[in-house]
């Protein structure tokens, strides 16, 4: 997929973004011919309604496009224009704020996304957009390209995206920005990261820990992403209906790689580290078992009460490594619990943090950049639920109550040492087509984090 804005000097058609409330004034400002045409086609400014007004030579004279100014009812409304308008170049007109223009332009770029690795085609020239005046076009292009990376990684079929392929993608990203990279596997993984090794050992595709570093000045920021390339559930085997989307169980890894790409491409003055435990959770004679008690990198023991709660195990060792350097900001992202989906659905990324400034910044940024997030609590009284009788921690507390919170509390035990820790329990998948978001893999929380970092870190 090629991402770009049209040249600034290209001949273009004016694209007026008009909601029902602004329609009367805009209509009255047009020529008699335009008003006549608008009335004949019954243009009301409803969301997604297009008024293609022809000129005398048959070319487009002007386009009116209905959209909502109430962003609470949806996102990227103008993105549908990118795929529905005739081929040509367009320039947005109308009384829109810079934030609204930025959202419109980003949505337009993302509307053309197609996963074409397995079925090429569908990327022909279509409607193109001039970068709206006042927006940071280079930043929007970077964000869109990073989102494409995330989507492509999630959408790749599991036979083509195992731990080794995820390592290759991460290392290629590191090389393109001059970042260092180190991968731990084999005996070193067994000694230093026993939970990662235990989860991944049943697969013929060996587990590994991917470690990228970039930047040598500024606050220390560590991103940890769950890289379970396919999750059968292990010996607690998932039913087929629950296994159908498990190629997306590395969505946390894909999202932090997209976020890391934005941070590096935009040159944020931070010391960035990315840690990805990459594994398959498979079934074999040497798979880890329910009732096993495993020792983590940190030394805490974990009783395994469900092998399908493997994501928190691999994250635990990676978080422990990250916390050993006492970073200023530690963020984990994972497609972790069904409980988070039940609570907030697929569109909202819940996050957990004890850092009030970080929480406020994320809520503000999520609303500002059309990347909805919502804070859930690290509820301390539930700590007892993750403490079994025979080990320090339980990976799957009985009863199923507050599953997203207990998983987050489990992870927090391994993040001690970081000045600020935030955990995202994302879905990483668009279950039905929406503007700028076709069915398939999608990044969540990354744009909110990117927008919040300067404020949180004082950059």
Could you give the topology of this structure?
Elements: E1 13-18, H1 23-28, H2 32-41, E2 50-54, E3 60-66, H3 79-84, E4 88-93, H4 98-111, E5 127-129, H5 137-155, H6 163-176, E6 180-184, H7 187-192, H8 194-200, E7 208-214, E8 220-225, E9 227-231, H9 240-243, H10 251-265, E10 271-281, E11 293-295, E12 301-303, H11 311-323, E13 329-334, H12 338-344, E14 349-353, H13 356-368, E15 373-376, E16 393-394, H14 403-412, E17 421-425, E18 429-430, E19 440-441, H15 446-457
Parallel strand pairs: 1-3, 1-4, 4-5, 8-10, 8-13, 9-10, 12-16, 13-17, 14-15
Antiparallel strand pairs: 2-3, 6-7, 7-10, 11-12, 14-17, 18-19
Helix pairs in contact: 4-5, 5-10, 8-11, 10-15, 11-14, 13-15
Provide a brief overview of the structure.
The chain is α/β, with parallel strands linked by helices and 459 residues long. 34% of the residues lie in helices and 20% in strands.
Structure description:
The protein is α/β, with parallel strands linked by helices. The chain has two domains: about 15-130, Leucine Aminopeptidase, subunit E, domain 1, CATH 3.40.220.10; about 140-455, Zn peptidases (Aminopeptidase, 3-Layer(aba) Sandwich), CATH 3.40.630. It contains 15 helices and 19 strands. The protein has helices at about 25-30, 30-40, 80-85, 100-110, 135-155, 165-175, 185-190, 195-200, 240-245, 250-265, 310-325, 340-345, 355-370, 405-410, 445-455; strands at about 15-20, 50-55, 60-65, 90-95, 125-130, 180-185, 210-215, 220-225, 225-230, 270-280, 295, 300-305, 330-335, 350-355, 375, 395, 420-425, 430, 440. The two termini are about 30 Å apart. The mean pLDDT is about 95. Keywords: Aminopeptidase, Hydrolase, Manganese, Protease. InterPro entries: Leucine_aapep/pepB, Macro_dom-like, Peptidase_M17_C, Peptidase_M17_N_1. It comes from Tropicimonas sediminicola. One of its GO terms (molecular function) is manganese ion binding. One of its GO terms (biological process) is proteolysis.
């Amino acid at each position: 997929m090629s991402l770009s804005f049209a040249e600034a000097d290209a001949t273009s058609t004016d694209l007026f973004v008009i909601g029902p409330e602004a329609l009367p004034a805009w209509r009255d400002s047009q020529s008699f011919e335009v008003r006549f045409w608008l009335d004949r086609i019954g243009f009301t400014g409803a969301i997604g309604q297009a008024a293609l007004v022809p000129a005398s030579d048959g070319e487009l004279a002007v386009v009116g496009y209905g959209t909502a100014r109430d962003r609470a009812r949806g996102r990227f409304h103008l993105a549908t224009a990118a795929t529905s308008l005739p081929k040509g170049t367009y320039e947005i007109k109308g009384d829109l704020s810079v934030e609204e223009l930025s959202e419109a332009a980003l949505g337009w770029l993302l509307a053309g996304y197609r996963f074409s690795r397995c079925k090429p085609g569908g990327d022909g020239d279509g409607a193109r957009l001039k970068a709206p005046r006042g927006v940071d076009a280079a930043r929007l292009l970077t964000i869109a390209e990073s989102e494409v990376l995330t989507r492509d990684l999630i959408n790749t079929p599991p036979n083509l995206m195992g731990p080794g392929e995820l390592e290759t993608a991460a290392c290629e990203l590191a090389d393109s920005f001059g970042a260092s990279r180190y991968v731990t596997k084999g005996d070193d993984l067994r000694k230093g990261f026993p939970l990662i090794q235990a989860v991944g050992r049943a697969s013929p595709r060996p587990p590994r820990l991917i470690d990228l570093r970039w930047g040598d000045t500024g606050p220390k920021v560590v991103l940890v992403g769950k890289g379970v390339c396919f999750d059968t559930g292990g010996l607690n085997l998932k039913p087929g209906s629950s296994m159908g989307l498990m190629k997306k169980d590395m969505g946390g890894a894909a999202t932090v790689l997209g976020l890391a790409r934005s941070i590096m491409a935009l040159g944020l003055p931070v010391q960035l580290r990315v840690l990805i435990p990459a594994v398959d959770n498979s079934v074999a004679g040497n798979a880890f078992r329910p009732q096993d008690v495993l020792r983590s990198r940190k030394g805490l023991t974990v009783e395994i009460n469900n092998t399908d709660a493997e994501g928190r195990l691999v994250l635990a060792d990676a978080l422990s490594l990250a916390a050993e350097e006492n970073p200023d900001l530690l963020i984990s992202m994972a497609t972790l619990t069904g409980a988070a989906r039940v609570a907030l659905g697929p569109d909202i990324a819940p996050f957990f943090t004890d850092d009030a400034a970080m929480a406020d910044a994320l809520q503000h940024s999520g609303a500002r950049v059309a990347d909805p997030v919502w804070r859930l609590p690290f509820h301390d009284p539930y700590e007892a639920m993750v403490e079994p009788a025979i080990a320090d921690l339980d990976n799957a507390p009985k009863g199923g109550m507050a599953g997203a919170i207990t998983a987050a509390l489990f992870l927090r035990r391994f993040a001690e040492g970081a000045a600020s820790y935030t955990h995202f329990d994302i879905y990483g998948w668009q279950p039905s087509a929406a503007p700028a978001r076709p069915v398939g893999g999608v990044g969540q929380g990354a744009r909110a984090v990117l927008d919040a970092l300067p404020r949180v870190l004082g950059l």
